[in-house]
């Protein structure tokens, strides 16, 4: 540990000034307990470090570290202080080095980059998040690179990147289908791609990252190398999926609680004060938050934290105006882009700039979104939403079967990609209208590809390698869990045969689900939701539909797959 006597804590995070200062005070209190003298200032207040033995920067790394001279210097993230302030201080003191060694200058694109850090995140935070992380780790090992990967899944962030790892990295890879906070990477070369690209074309992802990564500047959270039109399209889609991602827990919790209330009888919840009534009320409360969460986090994806308040309030207004999830989508994009416009275009004196994210943007953004929702878009969107509900609730068997075929087929086309996620997001939104058949078709269709591949490896064992047979066993489990990505290893090797057979099986399943009038009240869980009474009606018919489509996929692929001769290695 360093023999420092006097510590200087320097806060530097324009987006979280108050929070950073509070955490700096917390760290200073720990320093006092360890017998250190200390001072706490912001980076703007810094003049000289001549009177200090050690400088500890809290938050983001300043662009110019030379101002700290030859003093011992450490960087501490606000996450580390939140987790364990005592450990954060001791680690900072043990891993200090002179300022000139910390200085990070953007590296030019070259083939010399060897150290990467990455974040992976998908809308549901279940399959693609972890599969992409594993692919990046395996790819880095194969190519001779170092990589640290943070996963932001459904249970929160895991393997959180340390300030040291970020500082040492040549390039940051953001393999994300939703928006993630990039404040930590300001000043670093950043490359963005989808989780699917990182998973299926890992080597190409590394090559493009080295060639095309751009330096992320303050206030420019979208680091990208794509052309403007394509970026805008991808951005809108990513914003929508971010909203869906944060909305999903509300849908799952609400749907399952309402289903549990039905375990006591179809009319048991009508008795006020009874357990079924309370369960239904809790579930309804979760459903009430669905549209505000969708809207709020679409806005958050666009404008970061300043967009959250206008987005949440706009979503609540959309629900009150009976505009449903369509109104939530509209209010989310309105709130996000209005907040972003105010943040970029409204200029204030430096002394008042800190008021912008906590006063100016929430006030003007909420006022603007509220007035637009009431006087411009609220009623028209509500009317469109009502027409859509009437159509869905009154469509005949033919239309229902056609919708089931389309939705289930979309789930099988790109196995967790944009088309798959678009179908899923649409049917999750329909849950707010109490329309449950599309969700049943979507989930059933999403289970078919992986289960179908497992069946194919069982029926035509001589056509598959040992590794593919093992992948088939894993795919079966993943399919039962509604993780269609289990079929990706097969689709990557033989897409021209795998994808059509998956679509064929998915279409059969979707048609049967609609024909059987199956309805599902929760958006995830695979076959395991059948263990919850009333989560789905006609449970056995639903299983039959899944089995039928999976068998169609498995048998058809087993027939058309080319023979593969395995070379047996023997010791002679």
TrEMBL record:
Name a biological process GO annotation: phosphoenolpyruvate-dependent sugar phosphotransferase system
Catalytic reaction list: D-fructose(out) + N(pros)-phospho-L-histidyl-[protein] = D-fructose 1-phosphate(in) + L-histidyl-[protein]
Enzyme class, top EC level, equals transferase
Per UniProt, residues of the PTS EIIB type-2 domain are 116-211
Q: Which GO terms describe its molecular function?
A: carbohydrate:proton symporter activity; kinase activity; protein-N(PI)-phosphohistidine-fructose phosphotransferase system transporter activity; protein-phosphocysteine-sugar phosphotransferase activity
Sequence ranges assigned to domain PTS EIIC type-2 in this UniProt record = 236-570
Its placement in the membrane is given as: Multi-pass membrane protein
For this protein, the Enzyme Commission number is: 2.7.1.202
Q: Does Iron count among this protein's keywords?
A: no
The portions of this protein that span the membrane are: 246-269, 281-303, 323-343, 355-377, 397-415, 436-459, 471-491, 498-517, 539-560
Annotated GO CC locations: plasma membrane
Main subcellular localisation: membrane
Q: Which UniProt keywords apply?
A: Cell membrane, Kinase, Membrane, Phosphoprotein, Phosphotransferase system, Sugar transport, Transferase, Transmembrane, Transmembrane helix, Transport
> Is Cytoplasm one of the keywords UniProt gives this record?
no
Subcellular location(s): the record lists: Cell inner membrane
Q: Which NCBIfam families match?
A: FRU, PTS_IIC_fructo
**Name this protein carries in UniProt:** protein-N(pi)-phosphohistidine--D-fructose phosphotransferase
Q: Tell me the organism.
A: Acinetobacter baumannii MRSN 3527
């Amino acid at each position: 540990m360093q023999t420092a006597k006097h510590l200087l804590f320097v806060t530097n995070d324009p987006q979280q000034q108050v929070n950073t200062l509070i955490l700096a005070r917390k760290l200073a209190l720990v320093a006092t307990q360890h017998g250190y003298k200390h001072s706490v200032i912001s980076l703007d207040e810094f003049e000289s470090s001549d009177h200090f033995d050690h400088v500890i920067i809290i938050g983001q790394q300043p662009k110019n570290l030379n101002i700290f001279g030859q003093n011992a210097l450490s960087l501490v993230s606000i996450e580390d202080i939140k987790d364990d302030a005592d450990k954060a201080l001791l680690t900072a003191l043990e891993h200090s080095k002179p300022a000139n060694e910390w200085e990070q200058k953007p590296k030019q694109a070259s083939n010399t980059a060897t150290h990467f850090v990455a974040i992976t995140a998908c809308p549901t935070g279940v399959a693609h998040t972890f599969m992409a992380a594993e692919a990046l780790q395996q790819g880095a090992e194969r190519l001779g690179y170092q990589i640290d990967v943070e996963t932001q899944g459904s249970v929160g962030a895991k393997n959180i990147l340390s300030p040291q790892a970020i500082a040492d990295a040549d390039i940051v890879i953001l393999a994300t289908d939703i928006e993630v906070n990039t404040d930590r990477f300001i000043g670093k070369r950043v490359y963005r791609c989808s989780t699917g690209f990182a998973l299926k074309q890992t080597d190409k992802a590394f090559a493009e990252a080295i060639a095309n990564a751009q330096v992320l500047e303050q206030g420019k959270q979208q680091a990208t190398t794509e052309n403007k039109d394509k970026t805008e399209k991808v951005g809108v889609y990513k914003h929508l999926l971010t909203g869906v991602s944060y909305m999903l827990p509300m849908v799952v919790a609400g749907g399952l609680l309402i289903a549990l209330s039905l375990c006591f009888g179809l009319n048991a919840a009508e008795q006020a004060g009874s357990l079924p009534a309370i369960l239904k009320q809790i579930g309804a409360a979760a459903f009430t938050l669905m549209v505000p969460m969708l809207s709020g986090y679409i806005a958050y994806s666009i404008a970061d934290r300043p967009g959250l308040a206008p987005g949440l309030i706009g979503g609540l207004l959309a629900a009150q105006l009976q505009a449903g999830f369509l109104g939530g989508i509209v209010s989310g994009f309105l709130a996000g882009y209005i907040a972003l416009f105010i943040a970029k275009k409204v200029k204030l004196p430096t002394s008042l700039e800190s008021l912008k994210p906590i006063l100016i943007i929430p006030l003007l953004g909420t006022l603007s979104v509220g007035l637009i929702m009431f006087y411009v878009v609220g009623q028209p969107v509500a009317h469109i939403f009502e027409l859509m509900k009437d159509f869905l609730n009154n469509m005949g068997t033919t239309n229902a079967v056609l919708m089931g075929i389309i939705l289930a087929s979309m789930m099988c086309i790109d196995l967790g990609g944009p088309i798959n996620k678009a179908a899923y997001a649409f049917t999750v939104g329909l849950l707010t209208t109490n329309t449950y058949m599309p969700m049943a078709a979507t989930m059933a269709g999403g289970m078919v590809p992986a289960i179908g591949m497992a069946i194919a490896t069982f029926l035509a064992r001589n056509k598959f390698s040992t590794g593919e047979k093992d992948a088939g066993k894993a795919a079966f489990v993943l399919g039962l869990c509604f993780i269609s990505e289990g079929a990706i290893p097969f689709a990557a090797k033989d897409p021209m045969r795998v994808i059509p057979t998956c679509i064929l099986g998915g279409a059969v399943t979707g048609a049967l689900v609609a024909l059987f009038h199956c309805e599902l009240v929760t958006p995830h869980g695979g076959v395991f939701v059948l263990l919850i009474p009333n989560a789905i009606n006609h449970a056995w018919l639903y299983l039959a539909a899944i089995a039928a489509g999976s068998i169609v996929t498995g048998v058809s692929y087993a027939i058309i797959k080319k023979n593969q001769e395995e070379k047996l290695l023997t010791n002679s």
